[in-house]
Hints:
Residues 1-94 form the HTH arsR-type domain. By secondary structure, the chain is α+β, with helices and mostly antiparallel strands.
Amino acid sequence: xxxxxxxxxxxxxxxxxxxxxxxxxxxxxxxxxxxxxxxxxxxxxxxxxxxxxxxxxxxxxxxxxxxxxxxxxxxxxxxxxxxxxxxxxxxxxxxxxxx
Length: 99
């Protein structure tokens, strides 16, 4: 079962990989099939699937079956969790630097 609530450790772990960041960048433009996401990478379909599993477990993407195709889309809640944490961190960091 996939946890729909983003876990920050999983989110940032998923974001640490350049392939997964590239997949998220592509999904930011809109929904895509697994095959479309795999096209730009020189890796096997099982390797792409592993990356997608990490992104889904982190709550960063949704996957759904459409007939024989699997479609992926960005999960705004997962991305927002990372953005909110970074925004809070930057505010605290800026406040700590002020005299």
